[in-house]
Amino acid sequence: MPKKGFTLFNPNYIVRIALIAAIYVTINIIFAPISYGPVQIRMAEILTVLPYIDPAAIGGLFFGCVLSNLWGGLGIVDVLGGSVCTLVAAVLTHRMRKPFLAPFPPIIVNALGVSLYLHILFLLPYWLTVLYIGIGQTIACYLFGYPLLLVLIKRRIWLYRHNW
Q1: d(Cα 42, Cα 136) in Å, to the nearest integer?
Q2: Residue 158: its pLDDT value, please?
Q3: What is the DSSP letter of 74?
Q4: Closest C-alpha among 47, 53, 52, 39 to residue 65
Q5: What's the sign of the alpha-carbon dihedral 139, 141, 142, 145?
Q6: Closest C-alpha among 23, 25, 27, 15 to residue 56
Q7: Is 88 exposed, middle or buried (0-12, 13-18, 19+ CB in 10 A)?
Q8: What are the chain's domains?
Q9: What is the mean pLDDT for each group of 10 consecutive residues in the chain (164 residues)?
Q10: Nearest to residue 80, comparing CAs of 95, 105, 62?
């Protein structure tokens, strides 16, 4: 839960949202060839562990995903579908009780949710698309995101969670 006196219009909170969104978009643009399509490793998903330690990351990831998917070229379906999946996953990540579970919601929500429209857009079998997206998410979230989260927690960097 937010600290006492928390407001959504707190300048520090808004800056953290913008910073996370900007980093998310930048990473997606840098890694664009592997960030879009039915077979992807969206390296920006490394950041999906941040809601575990900072509620501002929920908005940052959502807005970052909206902007990234506008740039990505798959149209409004991807902008809406991918962003809603990211929002749901971010909220669930924030509710996780153990750091090891923080990468789990983005993997499951994106593998099942994003695959719903990607399999239609690319005419691929749904479960094969789930497998592709799930593998890419696991690489980004557990292989890279989880170690990032552990470093941030251990060094007490960027900790805005209420129980720290």
Answers
A1: 7
A2: 74
A3: S
A4: 47
A5: positive
A6: 15
A7: middle
A8: 11-154 (1.10.1760)
A9: 62 94 98 93 97 96 98 94 98 97 98 97 96 98 98 85 56
A10: 62
